[in-house]
Design brief:
This protein is an alpha/beta fold and 322 residues long. Helix 4 packs across helix 13, helix 9 runs antiparallel to helix 10 and helix 12 packs across helix 13.
Length: 322
């Protein structure tokens, strides 16, 4: 019990820092009553947190209200117009299922709308990142108003790629170049990693897709000469899906060729959820993730312009005129 109480206190201290009172409360009450059923101990904790004792029944009622509010936000209609650039990723958290620990995937999507601002589109429990989970996730987003998607950025996941083709056939796919590099590094000795990294970055530093392809061919040849045949195969097989960003305005390239836009958000989520350890179920994990996402939306992250979308508009007009 003592360890559980310490975990609860750590979680509450973590989520309280820098957040509005309403959202603090919604995050704090995500803790399942099943894990902290000792009424006397729970009242001691609430006294430490809020300055007065709160009964288990009151906490349970607050918990229900928090879930309702977060779920309403999660299912809100998307009203940002068109969303040309969409970033997707899966966050793996642990849950305790019948005394055994297992991973639960929370699928997350953010986007840049037609005005150039970032929006959190939504999050849903995926169990695992298979095609069925991604199809369900994308259809849910589309049903809430996701339209005008031109590019979907993410790590290479076969299930996700198949789902994109099924739900958003008009959209192109950009493989995150950072994840691509990591995949290549997996078959490169540490002693050669630094040199290979420079070679790979040079591919995506070119001024056109044609130049990038030519550079990639040169890199493949050099990797073979360095006795790194597996790395050469990975570059040769995967380079094309990392160059999709070249079909869009060059002013946007650095922000649409990686998944960094969502990775930074995910790191913040993991920082906040790490203190919890294992969740009692997938829905608890989802609710805490969504509570954090809703908080981020209200910060500078959501209010600061991320891209100038006039560049994309101009490119489309030029293509139509041809």
């Amino acid at each position: 019990m003592k360890d559980n109480l310490e975990k609860l206190l750590k979680m509450c201290v973590s989520v309280i820092e820098g957040q509005a009172a309403e959202r603090n409360l919604e995050l704090d009450v995500q803790i399942k009553r099943d894990d902290y059923s000792d009424s006397e101990n729970s009242e001691d904790i609430t006294e430490a947190l809020w300055g007065s004792k709160v009964s288990a029944a009151t906490i349970s009622e607050l918990n229900k209200k928090a879930y309702v509010n977060i779920e309403a936000w999660r299912n809100r209609p998307l009203q940002g117009g068109k969303y040309p650039y969409v970033y997707v990723d899966g966050i793996y958290l642990k849950r305790n299922w019948g005394g055994e620990y297992e991973n639960v995937a929370i699928l997350v999507a953010i986007a840049v709308n037609e005005d150039g601002y970032r929006e959190v589109l939504g999050a849903a429990e995926g169990m695992k990142e298979d095609k069925a989970s991604w199809v369900s996730f994308f259809k849910w987003l589309r049903g809430r108003g996701l339209e005008g998607v031109k590019l979907i950025v993410g790590d290479k996941c076969l299930g996700m790629l198949e789902a994109v083709g099924e739900v958003f056939p008009e959209a192109k796919y950009q493989r995150c170049v950072v994840h691509f590099y990591r995949n290549v590094f997996s078959v490169v000795p540490k002693s050669k990693a630094k040199n290979v990294a420079k070679m790979l970055k040079a591919i995506h530093a070119q001024e056109s897709k044609k130049a990038s392809r030519e550079k990639a061919a040169a890199v493949v040849a050099e990797l073979k000469s360095m006795k790194l045949p597996e790395a050469a195969k990975k570059v040769e097989a995967g380079i094309e899906e990392t160059l999709t960003y070249c079909d869009f305005p060059s002013e946007h390239w650095t922000k649409i060729r990686t998944n960094n836009a969502i990775e930074r958000l995910n790191r913040e989520i993991r920082r906040r959820t790490r203190v919890v350890g294992a969740f009692p179920d997938g829905n608890s994990a989802l609710m805490l993730v969504c509570a954090r996402l809703r908080h981020v939306v209200g910060t500078q992250w959501g209010s600061k312009k991320y891209m100038n979308m006039k560049h994309l508009e101009t490119m489309e007009q030029e293509l139509q005129a041809v």
